[in-house]
Specification:
InterPro entries: P-loop_NTPase, Phos_Acetyltrans/Butyryltrans. The chain contains 6 helices and 4 strands, in the order βαβαααβαβα. It is an alpha/beta fold. It has a single domain (3-138), classed as Rossmann fold (3-Layer(aba) Sandwich).
């Protein structure tokens, strides 16, 4: 059974694509059989244009990258209260594209004004795929104490201290 790691951005401009590509490159160099799974396309320009991470991987790597669901499809399902159908589609795409992988890297949605459902959906996807969660955030101008507080606040949206799938947290 493969190990599933989900990179979840805590906001915009955190460098999610750069972090994803860095993790992919590091695993490639170690010879890890990797698959990349971006469940939902979230193009910077909006609409149903190709997703940046998926496009870069396909052009520069032999690593399998599943076709993400279009945001319009996701919004339609969520708008008609069919999150269960959405999760089934995500699981189906996940299993169809990750059979031979030792590690599956999942890239979560960026929470934006237009996609305020991103954190809740990221949490549901992580739970459904039983993924280890790695938060991706930018330090900004925060002090270490402020950063710790921001991490704890984010963690609380993902099950808090009880969620053992959150990686890199303080296990007190």
């Amino acid at each position: 059974m493969s190990r599933t790691i989900m990179l979840i951005p805590t906001g915009t401009s955190v460098g999610l694509t750069s972090v994803s590509l860095g993790v992919i490159r590091a695993m490639e160099r170690k010879g890890v059989r990797l698959s990349v799974f971006k469940p939902i396309a979230q193009p910077r320009t909006g609409g149903d244009t190709p997703d940046q991470t998926t496009t870069i991987i396909r052009k520069n790597s032999s690593i399998p990258a599943a076709e993400p669901l279009q945001m319009s499809r996701v919004e339609s399902l969520l708008g008609s209260n069919q999150q269960d159908v959405l999760m089934e589609e995500i699981i189906s795409r996940y299993h169809a594209n990750t059979q031979n992988a030792e590690v599956v890297l999942v890239e979560g949605l960026v929470p934006t004004r237009k996609h305020q459902f991103a954190n809740a959906l990221n949490y549901e996807i992580a739970k459904t795929l039983n993924a280890e969660i790695v938060f991706v955030m930018a330090l900004g101008n925060d002090s270490p104490a402020q950063l710790k507080e921001r991490i704890e606040l984010t963690q609380s949206s993902f099950g808090g201290q009880k969620n053992k799938n959150i990686t890199g947290r303080d296990h007190q």
